[in-house]
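Worked Example 4.2. Consider the chain below.
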Amino acid sequence: MTMPLTPNSADALLFDLGRVVLDIDFTRVLKIWSDYAHCAPNDIVSRFARGDVYMRHERGEISDDAFFAHLHDTLGIDLTPAQFLEGWNAIFVGEMPGIAELLAHASKRWPLYAFSNTNVAHVTHFSEHHADLLSHFRTVFLSSSIGLRKPDAKSYEHVISEIGVPADRIVFFDDLADNIDAARACGLQAVHVTSPTSVAEALKALGL
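Applying the procedure from the previous section yields the following structure tokens:
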């Protein structure tokens, strides 16, 4: 049973990035790739798989170019690395509505951290385009940097150790149920972000 959030029950807040802090939309990726390839987006998405190579890319085990070469072969589209990169980074729509104000307010009371499954290409992109928003975080833990990705228990254990706060005093925000379940199994308080108001409601419950 998950305990409800209460005032003074947290010493640190930990945020996923995609669909929690930064809005993302994979259809934008497909649109650019399909335009370059002169095919329909559905032709590509049916062949796109978040399999072993995708996971290795997110753990920083293979380069962006190696990943794009894999996409070239598996998707069957003859794009240049630059065209793959343009589409790949188009996934980022902008900030989630209201999140900048919430993070600015919350950072005055708690230390804020982020933990994202992501790759070097995306890190390079959002670090440049969203530097002000990300500045609210003391540390941004990236799967491609630490070599571990959610929902692997070792990834949470690493982050908890680095933050230096007991797991049950950290509130974790993520949009994926599997990541929430794994976080709770590791002792974290966890908030499943399912709507644009989820973060605000949780912060209110914490007494902000």
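Residues 26-37 form the longest helix (12 residues). The chain has a mean pLDDT of 97. Compare this with Example 4.1 before moving on.
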